[in-house]
Amino acid sequence: MSQTVQNQSIANTGASEPMIEAIGLSKFYGSFAAARDVSFAINKGEVAAFLGPNGAGKSTTMKLLTGYLAPSEGYARVAGYNMATERLKGADSLGYLPENGPLYPDMTPRSLLTFFGNLRGMTQAKLDERIAAVIKTCNLEAVIGKPIGKLSKGYRQRVGMAQALLHNPDVLILDEPTAGLDPNQIREVRKMIRELGETKTILLSTHILQEVEAMCNRVVFINEGRLVFDGTPQELALEDHNLDNRFQALTVAG
Ligand SMILES: Nc1ncnc2c1ncn2[C@@H]1O[C@H](COP(=O)(O)OP(=O)(O)OP(=O)(O)O)[C@@H](O)[C@H]1O
């Protein structure tokens, strides 16, 4: 597989305040590198796709960025805070949708949101206000009192989004937000992300190329744990005329 950085051009969207930074991030499991010296910066206002085939290291890198996993080398910054030494401050600005969504099947969406709000030290008044807001944003009215384990995949994903949005963070890191959803649910989640992207900086992982064109103004591409492209969707498509061809070119042996 190609292991060279084939395009390091940085997207120029006019914004320049870095909100999500990977600085030489590596994660080793024994001698296997799930992420290897990954560096990029997502600027304020950007909606960035984190692209790569299965097993490329997207979830690992996202966990390193959010501070859920300790890097073997390098460090991450969110909203300017080092996630190794200032994680709580960084977490105030960060909402994270993990790849498997909410893992508390016996809780209801309301009890889950209350639990996370309490963990974040929200006052009851603030919590009531924010729960009402995320129920609306994520369309959770119909299921707010039902056990999460009994909800459809689409609703579980929305509960995960509600949890990520609860403290109204400026930065969102979303691990495959549309995975396993039906076409209607995918359309709804994409619409929600587009709307959120008007006010927030977002990094979302996907291997669906239409998602890039539908939602993103920036692409970071990794393969076998290494950064292989960093630029705009237009730059990604340019060399091989379309995104499908380019995805293949960046991931096949070469
Ligand atoms: N705890 C672990 N121990 C050993 N290997 C791991 C561990 N976690 C992840 N890996 C390996 O690291 C590589 C990257 O995994 P990761 O889940 O980050 O990929 P991904 O790009 O998110 O893939 P997908 O699109 O399938 O979710 C994979 O080969 C995976 O098997």
From TrEMBL:
Broadest EC class assigned to this enzyme: hydrolase
Membrane-crossing residue ranges in chain numbering: none
Gene3D superfamilies in the cross-refs: P-loop containing nucleotide triphosphate hydrolases
Family to which the UniProt record says this protein belongs: Belongs to the ABC transporter superfamily.
SUPFAM superfamilies in the record: P-loop containing nucleoside triphosphate hydrolases (SSF52540)
InterPro entries cross-referenced by the UniProt entry: AAA+_ATPase, ABC_transporter-like_ATP-bd, ABC_transporter_ATP-binding, P-loop_NTPase
Protein's recorded name: Putative ABC transporter ATP-binding protein YxlF
Keywords (A to Z) from UniProt: ATP-binding, Hydrolase, Nodulation, Nucleotide-binding, Transport
Presence of keyword Acetylation: no
Name of the coding gene: yxlF_4
Molecular-function GO term, any one: ATP hydrolysis activity
Superkingdom classification of source: Bacteria
EC number: 3.6.3.-
Domain ABC transporter intervals: 20-249
